[in-house]
């Protein structure tokens, strides 16, 4: 992997608003090239010569370019993870453009965002609800809850979701699912590969139908 090849990659990455397709072993080949350059540098007695200066410049430029490529791609991957949490959608073509290490990082980011959001938002709401009388929702056979009659839906501080049965599970959705109301009163519109916190009773129904997997996030 030569420096000029990497410079073409970073130019493409900067010009595109989406991830570009790169070789899965691009970083591995670049590391091999770095090792070759370091080996050549070790055989030079005087780095004040043109050859010594050229070697050091190439090593420095190659490392800077690798860092630029990864930084540009990290920014796009982080944006994708945040957007998916808001829209529950990600372009499958974009996922396939990630190399394996990037995909692993993307999944970890999504899981971390979901866990943090659940802790900050759902946890805080649950604490406030301790002083508010609970109005339980009836659960249908498909695991959803019956929709309230028109006019019963509240807004603002009084619209506080409380899952029947208590607690949530972080789940990985294995297939597209028709929108449903959870036992916490929220409407869930899920698609394949979503990572989402669901009320326990709703999650258990999806497990039984083999359309969701429980995700346990280690601390």
TrEMBL record:
What is this protein identified as?
A: DNA replication complex GINS family protein
Acidic residues: compositionally biased ranges: 143-152
Against Gene3D superfamilies, the record matches this protein to: 1.20.58.1030, 3.40.5.50
Which CDD domains does this UniProt record tie to the protein? GINS_A_archaea (cd11714)
Enumerate the residue ranges of region (Disordered).
134-154
Natural source organism: Methanogenium organophilum
């Amino acid at each position: 992997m030569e420096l000029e090849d990497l410079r073409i990659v970073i130019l493409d990455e900067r010009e595109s608003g989406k991830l570009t397709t790169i070789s899965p072993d691009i970083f591995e080949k670049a590391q091999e090239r770095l090792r070759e350059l370091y080996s050549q540098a070790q055989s030079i007695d005087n780095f004040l010569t043109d050859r010594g200066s050229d070697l050091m410049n190439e090593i420095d430029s190659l490392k800077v370019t690798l860092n630029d490529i990864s930084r540009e791609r990290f920014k796009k991957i982080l944006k994708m993870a945040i957007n998916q949490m808001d829209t529950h959608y990600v372009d499958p073509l974009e996922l396939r453009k990630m190399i394996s290490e990037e995909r692993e990082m993307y999944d970890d980011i999504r899981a971390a965002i979901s866990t943090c959001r659940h802790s900050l938002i759902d946890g805080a709401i649950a604490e406030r609800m301790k002083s508010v009388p609970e109005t339980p929702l009836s659960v249908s056979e498909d695991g959803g809850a019956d929709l309230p009659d028109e006019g019963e839906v509240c807004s603002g501080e009084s619209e506080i979701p409380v899952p029947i049965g208590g607690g949530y599970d972080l789940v990985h959705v294995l297939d597209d699912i028709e929108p449903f109301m959870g036992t916490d009163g929220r409407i869930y519109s899920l698609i394949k590969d979503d990572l989402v916190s669901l009320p326990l009773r709703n999650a258990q129904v999806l497990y039984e139908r083999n359309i969701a997997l429980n995700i346990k996030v280690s601390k």
